[in-house]
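Exercise 7.
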Amino acid sequence: MSTVMVDTTGLSGRLLLDEPMARHSSWRTGGPARRFYMPTDIEDLAAFMTRLPAGESIFWVGLGSNLLVRSGGLDGTVICTQGVLDDVKSEDGRTVIAGAGMPTAQLARYCAREGLSGSEFMAGIPGTVGGALAMNAGALGSETWDFVRAVQVINRRGEICWRDADAYQPTYRHVPRPTGEWFAAARFEFMPGDPDVITEAIRDCLKRRADTQPTGQSSCGSVFRNPPGDFAGRLIEAAGLKGFRLGGASVSDKHANFIVNDGDACAEDIEGLIHHVQAVVRERFEIDLIPEVQIVGLEAGGDLAEVRS
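Solution. The predicted structure, written as C-alpha cells, is:
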C-alpha cells in the first residue's frame, strides 16, 4: 500500500491510517483503508482535498451499505460522511436541502414532520443522501432523482458549486457524473401533505421492509439490479439458491436478492457467492444479473482488482 503522507496541520477533521473498513460496512467485512478522513464540515473537507496528491484514489463512504471492500483494503483515501454533512432545512413549503451525510431514513422522517410528501420510500433505504444520489436509489416505484432539483458538488481540488438537476441524466441505479466530483448536498422538491398520513406511510414502508427483508442481519441491501421486466430475487429463488452458503456468507432465506454475513464471512466469501449466483442464473435463465453493490479494493494478496474514485 501507498506510504504517501498528508499534511493535516490546521484542519479540524480526523485522519486515521490503516482503518479497518469492516467497521464502516454494513456487511462487517473489509480490509483497511490506507487513509480514512472524517471531516467536520464542507469547508474542512475542501481544505483537506486540496492537500491530497494528484492521482490519489478517493472513495466516499456514508453508512457503508451497498459496499463490499476486499480483504486487501483500499490503497487510497476514504472520505467518511457519517455524522457530518448531515444538515437539513426546508424552504418555501416545498424545498428541502439535505447534506450528503444525512441518512435517507432521517430525511424521510424530517419531511413527515414538515408535512412534505414524496420521500416516504426513502425510509426503507439503508444509506445516506449522498449514496442515494450517486446510484439513484429507489423503492416502491419512486427514485431519488424524481425529486432532485439541484445538487451541491465538490471536486478533488476542493472547489464547491451547485448544479441544476438537468445537468445529469440519471438512469436505473446509476447517475453518470464527472470523474473526481462528488455529491455534497441536494435540493429536493416535495409536495405538501398531511403529517399524520405521511408518518403512517413511513410506518407501512418500514413494516413491509421488516416483513420481507433480513433487516436484523448484516447485509448490503439488494445485491443485484432487477433485470428489465423481472425481479432479481425471483430469479435467484427460482434457481434454487435461497439459503445457499459459501463460507460464512449465504443467500437470505427471507429474500433471495440479499446476501447475509452469518457472523464470520470474509469479503472473498461474499464476492464468491455473488459470482456463483450470477453463474447459476445465467445458466438457468440466460440472464446476466448486474450487481448494485460496489465491489472495491485490493485482493487479499495485494493485487489491485478495482478501485473506484
